[in-house]
Amino acid sequence: MQLLDGKVVSAAIKVQLKAETANRLAEGKKIPHLVVIIVGNNGASETYVASKVKNCEEVGFGSTLIRLPEDVSEETLLSKLAELYHDDTVDGTLVQLPLPAHISEEKVILAINPAKDVDGFHPVSVGRMVQGLPTFIPATPYGIMLMLEHYGVQTSGKHAVVIGRSNIVGRPMSILLSSQHAYGNCTVTVCHSKTRDLASFTREADIIVAALGRPGFLTADMVKEGAVVIDVGITRVPDVSKKSGFAIRGDVDFEQVAAKSSYITPVPGGVGLMTIGALLKNTMAACKMRAGELS
Ligand code: GUN
Q1: Whose CA is nearest to atom 2 of ligand 1?
Q2: What is the pTM of this model?
Q3: Does residue 294 surpass a pLDDT of 90?
Q4: What is the CATH number of the domain that holds 106?
Q5: Any bridge partners for residue 77, and if so which?
């Protein structure tokens, strides 16, 4: 069993981006600037946005965190996004999800400038991804692809089972794995909450991506010997032994499943770190594209 180590791969991405940013600065070129918006104070979202800002700082990017109260109106958020749409100092804009129920996620995503859509959630980005055109790929699936590439995990002709069909992970993951490129070319099955006998699909899978948000869901009896197992779960579960009062658990029963798998991602230290690395790569790409350096 080989661990797909998010620490190693994301550190390599950050070293490369940090050097590239320093070179840009020395050459008088624009430095990437990411704006992150958080609405309310959901604990998990707070942790993610803090990490996004911190990682920007670590590689030398500019970053701005905009905090809006839980009861902010949809109109106020949309007008902030309209401002950022045209602000030339901003390369990437993202609004942390989920949003409070009174705000339409769809309207918010549509209000982001597609040229700054580093989350890859705008329909323009999604459409381009589906058609295999250059675009921003949502950070979690992009991070997983970068990890497969880093470890040279062969995907062509393999049967991949993706559990979950969210716009953030499952759906884009299924598209990328089936696309025609070096780390795609899989035959993909998408399983979800209405799938009957889900284990009958996972047992046949060469590659499993578990992105359903149910701690320890994927057990050893559901996995074929030698499978590649990617765990996207990051659920907080109560744990009195931790200072924070919680531990992070993935969707995979790691101990049992690791013994059967060829490659597996740990939680924490796997996909979560890759998500940040991918977001940073998207932000650098947005900066270069807006500066006319990329087509
Ligand atoms: N919430 C969970 N994952 C993500 C993500 O990748 N981007 C944003 N904006 N919100 C999220």
Answers
A1: 97
A2: 0.97
A3: no
A4: 3.40.50.10860
A5: none
Token pair of 103 as six digits = 């705000």
Instruction: Identify whether residues 154 and 261 lie together within a single domain.
Output: yes
Evaluate: CB of 191 within 6 angstroms of ligand 1: no
102: its two tokens: 């009174």
CA–CA dist 268, 254 (Å, integer): 11
Range of the domain at 258: 139-272
Average pLDDT over residues 2-30: 98
Q: Which atom of ligand 1 is nearest to the CA of 119?
A: 7
- Structure confidence by residue, pLDDT tens digits, 136-183: 999 999 999 999 999 999 999 999 999 999 999 999 999 999 999 999
Query: What is the total residue count of the chain?
Result: 295
Residues 6+ apart with CB under 8 A from 195: 201
Annotated catalytic residue within 91, 119, 251, 253: 119
pLDDT digits (tens, 9 = 90+) for 223-251: 999 999 999 999 999 999 999 999 999 99
Indicate if 242 belongs to the active site: no
Q: Decide: 197 and 151 in contact? Cβ < 8 Å.
A: no
Q: Which of 42, 81, 94 to mutate to test the pocket of ligand 1 (most atoms within 8 A of CB)?
A: 94
